[in-house]
Amino acid sequence: MYSEWRTLHLVLKNDQGHTSVLHSYPENVGRDVANAVVRPLGQALNAPSIAGTESILKTDKQVKWTMEVICYGLTLPLEGDTVKYCVDVYTDWIMALVSPKDSIPQPVVREPNKYIQIILKHLQNVFVPRQEQIGNQIRLCLQVLRSVQKLARDSTSMARETWEVLLLFLLQINDTLLAAPTVSGGIAESLADKLIGVLFEVWLLACTRCFPTPPYWKTAKEMVANWRHHSAVVEQWSKAICALTSRLLRFTYGPSFPPFKVLEEDASLIPAEMDNECVTQTWFRFLHMLSNPVDLSNPSIIGTTPKFQEQFLNVSGVPNQELNQYLCLKQLPQIFFRAMRGVSCLVDAFLGISRPRADSAPPTPVNRLSMPQSTATNTTPPHNRRHRTVTVNKTTMKTSSVNTTHSTKVQQQASSTSPLSSPNQTNSEPRPLPAPTRPKVNSILNLFGSWLFDAALVHCKLQNGVNRDSSMTAIATQATVELRRKGSQLSTDTMGSSTVFDANEFPDSYEAGRAEACGTLCRIFCSKKTGEEILSAYLSRFYMGLVQGLQIGEFICHPVLASIILNSPPLFCCDLKGINVVVPYFISALEIILPDRELSKFKSYVNPTELRRSSIHILLSLLPLPHHFGVVKSEVLLEGKFSNDETASDKPVTFLSLKLRLVNILIGALQTETDPNNTQMILGAMLNIVQDSAFLEATGNQVEMIENNLMKSHSRTNSGISTASGGSTEPTTPDSERPAQALLRDYDTAAGLLMRSIHLVTQRLNSQWRPDMSISLAALELLSGLAKVKVGIDSSDRKRAVSSVCTYIVYQCSRPAPHHSRDLHSMIVAAFQCLCVWLTEHPDMLNEKDCLKEVLEIVELGISGSKSKNPEQQEVRFKGDKEHNPASMRVKDAAEATLTCIMQLLGAFPPPSGPASPCSLVNETTLITYSRLPTVSKYSFRYFVLDNSVILAMLEQPLGNEQSNPSPSITVLIRGMSGRHAWAMQLCHLPRAARANQRMFIPETRPEPKNDVGIKYNVKHRPFPEEVDKIPFVKADLSIPDLHEIVTEELELRHEKLKIGMAKQITYEAGLDHMKEEEFQKKSYPDPVTECKPPPPAQEFQTARLLLSHFGFLSLEALKEPVNSRLPPHLIALDSHIPGFFDDIGYLDLLPCRPFDTVFIFYMKAGQKTSQEILKNVESSSNVQPHFLEFLLSLGWPVDVGTHPGWTGHMSSSWSINCVGENEQQGHEEAVPSEDTGGSIFNGEKKVLYYADALTEIAFVVPSTVESQTDTSESNVSEQESDSNMDLLPGILKQPLTLELFPNHTESLNSTQRLSPTSRTRKTPHGRTVPPLGPETKVAVVWLEQYDDLENFPLLDLAAETSTGIETTTNSSTSIRNSTPEKEVPVIFIHPLYTGLFRVKVHGASGKFNMVIPLVDGMVVSRRALGFLVRQTVINICRRKRLESDSYNTPHVRRKQKITEIVNKYRNRQLEPEYYTSLFHEVGLKSCTP
Predict the structure, then answer these.
(1) CB within 8 A of 1030, min separation 6: which ones?
(2) % the chain with pLDDT above 90
(3) pLDDT value at position 148?
(4) What is the pLDDT of residues 1083-1110, one digit of tens each?
(5) Where residue 999 falls among pLDDT bands split at 50, 70, 90?
(6) Distance CA 612, CA 772 (A)
(7) Which of 355, 525, 620, 1428 has the highest count of CB atoms within 10 angstroms of its CB?
(8) Is the pLDDT of residue 11 over 60?
(9) What is the per-residue pLDDT for 1426?
């Protein structure tokens, strides 16, 4: 920059302005004259009585003569007051340019510039080092410096010549004191800070008022290079350049760029009147004022300056001087570190990542290493003491926005507890992102790259063992090596007590500065924008630095390694060209960090938790690579070329061969991790790798694993893995101690990974993780995710998962009462939810008796608070004998939900109607529609309530399709806590198998007669017994004469006539009998006239009565009010004629029986900022990437909003039944031309994407702009829906329900939607009132073409597009708001990388339930697993939000409350006789018309 300009060294050398005429005389003459002349002048200034009187010098001649004397007086020894008087006089006269006083001679007042130039040259004599009375000299020097400082600040009439003399004066005195090697306790050491501070301040003032010419800049640069062995030079330079940078950024990048805040005292160095052009010119020149800061790492450069050489040659025989020289160079590692820290701060400022935090003082931009700390206090050099590091931090970090008096104290506290000076990294706060308007990587590297690249390779052994010098082009000479060796001997003597220094390697002391440079380079490359090109030269230099910094063998450098890891979390997410060549080195580094529990070798430099967190971030971005690239080999063979590991193989490494090492690192990290946030990140990564493996195997793309020999070379034991697990007492064998073959068997399949994951998580869930809520929730979420992985594993492993969750619930419920809190109960509720997931995904587990028993015992524990059978107690306590004392009502509700899941869902999902609704799609309207009887109406149903929890709607009339089978039949709609179910039942006396071949109700025929049975006897019957004839007569018997004794002829005739008549009668009767006998023989059997026939089967039954009676519900006891209870009887009837009854039944049907969530998906093209632009992107497939459409279809399946019986993303169209709409055909026709959509077809108007399982349902909506005719089509659809759906709700048509709803909810909805011209003007159909459903659970997913645009995403502007209709149903117990605040809507950003992988950023899922898995910040996922992981994350986010909400009730509780309300409102209060009578009467025919 100044190559064609001459320096001013010769001018300074030949200038004799600091000599006096008296120097020509003998010494005693000059001393006497000076004592005599200066005393009255000095006394006149110091005596209060005569102060302010006029000077005794009146003419130019007098002044000039006196100045010759004063000039000589300034060179005298410091005994007496002569020199002090001389300094007093000159510092008084200098003020002539500021505020003239009477004590200043008039000639000086008249021509101040001329005289002050002479005075400044004379004052150089004050700074000539003296051997005695150093304290006095320091005071005099400070007096001069303060005067010069005031002169430069306050003078308004200083001429250019005076400015130039002033600058040369400051350069000369600095060079006089600072160029020579530092002497301990000398004047230079005491004055260095002030000297440099005044020089830089005056220089900046001169830039504003009289910009120095190039020779001055060149001279200053060359001189400053000779002073760099003083730490004050680097400190003051860093102060000045940071203050200049703060001003530069302000006008270069505008107000939107994050301000680079510096301390007030540093900002004041830059004059307020300095214009922008001047700031720019000054900044660039000042940046290079220090020359190359990497020279500070090379003692051969710093120790061979002219003053060093001159002193070494002059006193080469004096050993003390040589010792001083090397003691001075011993400070270089600390100075080098401070210089690189200053450069690092500038880089951060240009990247815009130095944003202050409101809750820390002062904030620091990024992760930084501290200098190594020693355990000794007395023998440690000052630059190694901890408080010195604080000073550097304070002066070079320039970030802060709080008062400076407090900042030092806070920093000392922070530094004393953690060497990592990164407050914004504690408490797992996200890293600040670089500013969107930051300069390109190439631009920053053009400024700072040469310094940083050189510093990153300081003292590295490169190929062939060549020593790396501070310059990329210079090779150290043998003399330099010897000089280093000498310095090494001296420095290690003092540093021997520090455990982090290798006593045999002096260059290790420069590792802090090197680490700072490596970390800065990593931050620069991590700030690459999407699509930005970086020069190949810069990339190759960077990769070489990484390879050297990540060495883990003999040449490991812990501070550099830690710095690279701390600053590289997003390195593999930035699409850096060729970055994968360093993957093996990062894996090797992670292998010595993550499985090491103590990290004892890193504790001196960095917070171990932060180091592990950064390592986990890097691991998250490396995990998908093996599956993604498979057997692809790296084109560039770095392995062995730049590595010092002689055993490294030169064979190319396939990515798939790295899978084993990555999984081992992941599992080792989980075994040793103690920090909750880090643990949750590992758990998220575990589900990612297991699911990805499962998908890979499912698609049949499983690639053959690596051969045995390659496998051995990359096993954990051969890759330098640390087994220092800090005395781990794990019951399972640590992976580091297991043979590589066994590991491969475990992890080469998804089933092995799944099994190992279940074992690890379940074991820790019931040990270390039990007390920690955040880890427990994440572990339970991981187990829920693992349950959904479609991989076959042993039933014992599945039972292990279920059993561990049950054990966890038992432990948490049994904790002492003081520990029971809302958070504890949230953990128990989450465990019950996890249990439900496992049972619904694997229902066959309950076929095993022991598993079923264990699960039901846990349900019993949750509902009642205790088990019926305890191990300690032998006796069994029955349910009726126990006192219910659950842990809390939330726990009881969760246990009831689990019981409902077991009884209602297992084996019954999905139902025949599909997964969109776990309930029956039949209601009263459906039954009326399909009934063939004109008399059937909604009043034909009998309504009963069982146990205050189940409403039975019974239709006794047959539906008309079963007339051929006249068995008693009934259709029942069962509305319970778990939903609505329709049952058709018949009374059958035979089992199904026998009934299949049996004709019903056909009477049996009479059996054929059998006349030949038995013996037939002919017996003549007598009127009297035979014994009567044997009885002898008596006289009385003979008193009645016989007939023949009294007969006469007349009587005889009559007798004959009678006898003839009798004979005829007998003959006639015998003939008649014979004829009848013959006729009887001729007749068929049986006689149809006289035969008895059975009556026809009954066609009318009181089937409701029969059903209730047969099932035991109808009894005298069931109808009686319970004693001492406010509950209604076990069986009650409802009166459906009370107005509003069917409105409330319809309202109950609207209450969902599963949690429902909503996801709004947006596509954001590069550079977009407004909501209008974002919404228009999805209108055409040409506007979106093909992977976006594939991603959409991986989330769920398309459904038609008009006919969909589940959640659709908006209350107005959800849970519809009976939608046999006429527009169904139109929908199919319109779907054909809309194939070109970019996703807008799923905007919720006609279609949405939908996913449901047994426990939850999700609607995925892709909002788009609304066309003008949408309103009319919407209103038509709404009318059709209301006509077809709401036959049961005539009362609602007149007035809305007021069940904890705002009466003006419609108006509030409209006003909310009017905020955005593009918002969907959805209106709830007339007659459809929305029930209050608790907290709104919605998530935004944003597809980013350019990652930096995530800060510009207009979430607040798009709030109207994310309306679900639930906002208007907020009841009085919750906070009244129309929409969810912006910060409460979690956002998942997805950015596609050029490699085909996807980078994920999760925003807003924070709070007490902060980190949700499986997707976490910085994770990279494969295309296969993206949809599953996003969906699982959404489910977990919404589940946690419901856990956190105070107003949320589970669906079965909401339904139970509504059923109770219906019972109280519509109970039919009949007497028992009336009740029984009503069961025998038909219902509904008299009181309604069909």
Answers:
(1) none
(2) 9
(3) 86
(4) 777 777 777 777 777 777 888 888 888 8
(5) low
(6) 19
(7) 620
(8) yes
(9) 92
Nearest to 176 by CA among 235, 124, 132: 124
186 neighbors 221 (Cβ within 8 angstroms): no
Token readout for 1142 is: 């069917």
3-state secondary structure of 836: helix
Query: Whole-angstrom Cα distance, residue 921 to residue 1203?
Result: 11
Q: What tens digit of pLDDT does each residue of 866-884 get?
A: 887 776 666 777 776 777 7
Query: Which tokens belong to 1325?
Result: 């159909």
Q: How far is CA 432 from CA 436, 610, 1348, 1390, in A?
A: 12, 15, 12, 18
Q: How far is CA 619 from the centre of its chain?
A: 16
Q: pLDDT band at 466, cuts 50/70/90?
A: very low
Q: What is the pLDDT of residue 703?
A: 43
In whole angstroms, give the CA distance from residue 656 to residue 644.
25
Q: Which of 270, 216, 223 is nearest to 242 (CA)?
A: 270
Residue 559, C-beta contacts closer than 8 angstroms, at least 6 positions apart: 369, 372, 500, 511, 512, 514, 515, 605
Q: Which two tokens stand for residue 953?
A: 């709607």
Query: Cβ neighbours of residue 819 under 8 Å, at least 6 residues apart?
Result: none
* pLDDT surpasses 90 at 716: no
The encoded tokens of residue 1402 equal: 């999760």
**Rounded-to-integer distance, Cα 1324 and Cα 1306, Å:** 8
Strand partners, 1158: 1259, 1338
Q: Which among 259, 247, 242, 433 is positioned nearest to 353, based on CA atoms?
A: 433
Amino acid (one-letter) located at 193: D
Sheet containing strand 1398-1403, edge to edge, reads: 1197-1200, 1247-1252, 1257-1261, 1156-1164, 1338-1344, 1387-1392, 1398-1403, 1420-1421
Written as one letter, the residue type at 281 is: Q
Give the pLDDT confidence of 727-765 residue by residue, as tens digits: 333 334 444 444 343 444 566 788 888 888 898 899 888
pLDDT for the residue numbered 1103? 85
What does 516-533 look like in DSSP terms, one character per residue? Answer: HHHHHHHHHHHTPPTT--
- Residue 501's Cβ-count burial label (10 Å; 0-12, 13-18, 19+) is buried
The CA–CA distances, whole Å, from 251 to 271, 275, 355, 445, 897 equal 15, 10, 18, 21, 62
- What span, in angstroms and rounded, lies between the C-alpha atoms of 1307 and 1304? 6
**648: phi then psi, degrees, rounded to nearest 5:** -65, 140
What is the average pLDDT across 407-430? 37
Distance, CA of 1299 to CA of 1291 (rounded, Å): 14
The HSE-up count of residue 446 (CA atoms within 13 Å, CB side) is: 8
Q: Residues 427-459: pLDDT tens digits?
A: 445 567 788 888 999 999 999 999 999 888 888
Look up residue 1130 and give its amino acid: H
Q: Is the Cα dihedral 791, 795, 801, 806 positive or negative? A: positive
Distance in angstroms (rounded) separating the CA atoms of residues 1254 and 1257 = 8
In b/e form, how buried is each residue of 618-627, taking b as 16+ CB within 10 angstroms? bbbbbbbbbb
Please tell me the chain's helix, strand, coil percentages from 3-state DSSP, rounded to the nearest 5. 55, 5, 40
Listed in sequence order, the residues at least 6 apart from 803 whose beta carbon sits closer than 8 Å to its beta carbon are: 851, 854
Please give the full DSSP string across 1049-1088, using - where no structure is assigned. Answer: HHHHHHHHHHHHHHHHHHHHHHHHHHHHHHHHHHS-SS-T
1258 bridge partner residues: 1157, 1251
What is the rounded distance in angstroms from the CA atom of residue 1435 to the CA atom of residue 882?
Answer: 37
**Can you give the pLDDT at residue 1322?**
53
pLDDT in tens, 1028-1050: 888 888 888 888 888 777 888 88
Residue whose token pair is 């080792």: 668
Alpha helices in 1094-1242 (DSSP H): 1103-1110, 1141-1150, 1171-1176, 1186-1195, 1223-1231
